[in-house]
Amino acid sequence: MNDTYKTIEKRSEEILFKEKNSKFYGYAFPVTSEEEIKNHLDSLRKQHHGAVHFCYAFQLGTDKIQYRANDDGEPSNSAGMPIYGQIQSFGITNVLVVVVRFFGGVKLGVGGLISAYRTAAQMALEESQIIEKTIDVSFEISFDYKNMNKVMRVIKEKNLEIVSQEMNESCKIVIATRKKNAEMIFDIFSNLFEVGIEIKD
Questions:
Q1: Whole-angstrom Cα Rg for the chain
Q2: Which family does it belong to (predicted)?
Q3: CATH 3.40.50.10540 holds for 4-133
Q4: C-alpha dihedral over 129, 32, 87, 123, to 10 degrees?
């Protein structure tokens, strides 16, 4: 089972690609939600007041893929899709690539635009550190305080990540494990006396 995916570690450095007096600024961001994407776009719009087009593409998710390509006023499929094509060719997800264009007075034609947006997106991704992450599954473990030791022993033995915990009379711990180990971990906790486990979305 494949339970890893590739993404970028952090925001790329700004790159600049020039074509016939037009300037194309490229950026890549690691993202996990549409809210983050909107925030990055808003801040780029504030940063580049005089720019005509903010073209972008993003991809989110590992099992269920969600993506969008936006031409932002450029001819149809001349900007967003060439940018998205680069996200695909780098084999990454949870990423947003934005190319900001300042028009230089000379029209590039659709072919020229496709080439410029593709190149700027490629340069932005080449500037980025690509990392591999595991696809994790989260479980909520619920138990009485008296059963704390046996629960913690499994967490320690199996090297599980604790995401959050509430320790009172009745305790709840949210743990994360790699997808390929999820079934085994679920079985271990299911078989512990007086311990409940359920998958967290």
A1: 23
A2: Belongs to the IMPACT family.
A3: no
A4: -40
Full-model pTM? 0.83
User: Strand pairing of 95-102 and 53-60?
Assistant: antiparallel
DSSP string computed for 12-35: PPPEEEEETTEEEEEEEEE-SSHH
Rounded to an integer, what distance in angstroms lies between the CA atom of residue 66 and that of residue 33?
A: 10
Question: Can you name the CATH fold of 135-200?
Answer: Alpha-Beta Plaits (3.30.70)
Output the six-digit token pair for 123. 């340069």
- How do the pLDDT tens digits run along the chain, 201 residues long? 688 999 999 999 999 999 999 999 999 999 999 999 999 999 999 999 989 899 999 999 998 899 999 999 999 999 999 999 999 999 999 999 999 999 999 999 999 999 999 999 999 999 999 999 999 999 999 999 999 999 999 999 999 999 999 988 899 999 999 999 999 999 999 999 999 999 987
DSSP state of 127: T
Helices 80-89 and 109-126 cross at an angle (nearest 10°) of 40
In Å, how far are 30, 140, 146, 147 from 150, measured between CA atoms?
38, 15, 9, 6
Question: Residue 121 and residue 123: Cα distance in Å, rounded?
Answer: 5
Tokens (6 digits) for 151: 């629960």
Please classify residue 108 by burial: count the beta carbons closer than 10 Å to its beta carbon, then call 0-12 exposed, 13-18 middle and 19+ buried. buried
Question: What angle do helix axes 182-190 and 148-157 make, rounded to 10 degrees?
Answer: 160
Domain locations along the chain: 4-133, 135-200
